[in-house]
Design brief:
Shape: elongated
Mean pLDDT: 92
CATH superfamily of the largest domain: NAD(P)-binding Rossmann-like Domain
Radius of gyration: 24 Å
Number of helices: 12
Low-confidence stretches: none
CATH architecture of the largest domain: 3-Layer(aba) Sandwich
Number of domains: 2
Helix content: 40-55%
CATH topology of the largest domain: Rossmann fold
Strand content: 5-15%
């Protein structure tokens, strides 16, 4: 199997190495010439045998759209484009239609595994035509986690459905990830807040074996606390990459209650505030209706003691 791979950053670069280690020939292109095997997309396409398979690993949105449009002019009948980035599923439908006009197949592939994927493998959620999936299957098999003793299992790979299904599944996966991270974080904060627990990192570490809450995310939190006890080197500021918002928007569209994932997304918004306008308004209203004490804007402190409204 010979694959063209566009985008050789942290994820793409590691994927190239994992594929090569497992016998897949990869010709890579990146705007950074020091990472690239060829000088242009045209050179990459020329280097591939037919049917050509090109995997796109560039940022979602305009960069992916521009890349797909350029590939539409370079590829031909029977070739396949795989978008392995974090595109919104609605973009997948547009990309597939654009390429279909030229007889080019399109697969969307949600990829999970992060910087550990080269060693551990990647979980892959694919949307598109079954025949196109079969053509690219050797690549999926090289990227997915090794089957180990469960060779008959899915092994971190699923053909989720038609075009868009792969990225939709990955979007929901990331929404669940937001909620899991928030739950671990809140549990960690409560353990730190009490004087009953002497060794919070050790408690979290003990959860990693034999409990119903063990997970790789918990492993990563324990590792972070080992590297930086108390997390003193990190601000409590968390960005969101888009999929959490899209998950909540899809829940609204389909009238699906999503209390926990929505709350975890809003918690990230709150983390970016030096001062909360909403809480200022609440303090002002409490002062107005009940004469409750407030803190002046310049006064340090964690807030007034609770009192009945």
């Amino acid at each position: 199997m010979h694959l063209g791979l566009i985008g050789l950053g942290k994820m793409g670069g590691n994927m190239r190495e994992r594929l090569r280690e497992r016998g897949v020939t990869v010709t890579g292109y990146d705007r950074d010439a020091s990472l690239s095997d060829v000088g242009s997309l045209a050179e990459l396409v020329d280097a591939l045998p037919s049917p050509k398979v090109v995997w796109v690993m560039v940022p979602a949105g305009d960069p992916t759209r521009a890349t797909v449009t350029e590939l539409a002019g370079l590829l031909g009948q029977g070739d396949i484009v795989v978008d392995g980035g974090n595109s919104r599923w609605t973009d997948d439908i547009a990309h597939a239609a654009e390429l279909a006009e030229r007889g080019i197949g399109y697969l969307d592939c949600g990829v999970s595994g992060g910087v550990w994927g080269r060693e551990n493998g990647y979980a892959l959620m694919v949307g598109g035509d079954a025949a196109d999936v079969a053509t690219v299957q050797p690549v999926f098999d090289a990227l997915r986690p090794d089957a180990g003793d469960e060779a008959e299992g899915t092994g971190g790979f699923v053909h989720a459905g038609r075009v868009g299904a792969g990225h939709f599944a990955k979007m929901v996966h990331n929404g669940v990830e937001y909620a899991m991270m928030q739950a671990y974080a809140e549990g960690y904060e409560l353990l730190e807040a009490t004087d009953l627990v002497d060794d919070v990192p050790a408690v979290l570490d003990s959860w990693r074996e034999g409990t119903v809450v063990r997970s790789w995310l918990l492993d990563l939190l324990v590792q972070a606390l080992q590297d930086d006890p108390g997390l003193s080197k990190i601000r409590g500021y968390a960005e969101d990459s888009g999929e959490g918002r899209w998950t909540v928007e899809a829940a609204i569209e389909h009238a699906v209650p999503m209390h926990v994932i929505a709350s975890s997304l809003f918690a990230r918004f709150q983390s970016r505030q030096d001062e909360s306008r909403a809480m200022q308004a609440i303090a002002a209203m409490r002062q107005q209706f009940g004469g409750h004490a407030v803190r002046a804007a310049a006064e340090p402190g964690a807030g007034e003691p609770p009192s009945a409204d």
